[in-house]
Amino acid sequence: MNICLSENDREQTRVAGQVYAMNDAPKTVGMDWMLRLETWPVLRPVLERFYEKRFAKNGYGAFRGVYSSFEEAGRTAPRNKPLGFATQDYAQEFADRRSRIFSFDYPVLFWLAPLLRSPIRLFDYGGHCGTHFYAYGQYVDYSPGLQWVVCDLPEITGFGVQVAAEQAEKQLTFTNQFEDADSADVLLAAGSLQYIESPPFSVALSRLKSPPRHILINKLSLHDGRSIVTLQNGGVAYHPMYVFNRREFIDSVCAVGYELIDSWAVPSHAGRIPFHPEASFPAHSGLYLRSRS
User: Fold this and answer.
1) In terms of DSSP bridges, do strands 214-220 and 284-291 run parallel, antiparallel, or are they unpaired?
2) Model confidence over 211-253: pLDDT tens digits?
């Protein structure tokens, strides 16, 4: 097996399996006690019931449970909101993100900005209604020849087409097919890959006749343990999602012709799964991979 990780990456991977924090707060002395209480047999059933109510009511962004498949995770979802991203409510979310960037965008822009000044074709996998196209355009002068293609669900891209028409935007187009990544110069996947049940990302890449030279992945759930599925409260819906084993995920992409150039942590997006420290992780991750050919 080809482990294409630097020593620094290996150390980050080791630490990721040992330390984790709450999704919405830094680790404190009080938090340490909460983590200990979760392991007490007498208290755990009570705490699990309390957390279940919190998760279903106002647990936006929170995670619950460890499962073997998306189907199993979906069966356990509370019934007070839909399951999955194929909703009109989700399509209309994140309007504020089209006009600004966040701390987790800067590592992506460090590598992407120079490329955007050339007449490239960028495939934005899970790019919603073109959120990053609009936001990054506030800070980067796009090449007139730039082609930005967003791939998402029909419920999302339909709204994206409407927004682009209102903006008279000609450089932004939409698709529902991953195969349209063929011949793209750059593939961007920000906070999307863990929500795609199948095929595995590396398998999808291997099926392209002319895969992208550059791959930028952001807000990806990676940790040092085995790959698992958890359930997230996404606000308007619940979402089964993967937490990938870091080495396995990177190796799988390297095995289809890429090398890891850079990686970074996204500490604003922690991944504590209550009652499952073995599956939790301190931060989501970002990766920049480049074709070896």
Assistant:
1) antiparallel
2) 999 999 999 999 999 999 999 999 999 999 999 999 999 999 9
CA pair distance 184, 210, nearest whole angstrom: 8
205 vs 210: CA distance, rounded Å: 9
- Give me 58's structure tokens: 């106002």
Query: Whole-angstrom Cα distance, residue 177 to residue 154?
Result: 10
Q: Which domains does the chain have, with CATH numbers?
A: 7-291 (3.40.50.150)
Question: What's the pTM?
Answer: 0.87
For tokens 């906070």, name the residue. 191
- Between strands 258-266 and 284-291, the pairing is antiparallel
- Among residues 238, 240, 196, 239, the alpha carbon closest in space to that of 217 is found at 196
Instruction: Indicate the burial class of 49 (C-beta count within 10 angstroms; 0-12, 13-18, 19 or more).
Output: exposed
Helices (H), 59-185: 70-75, 88-91, 106-116, 131-136, 154-166
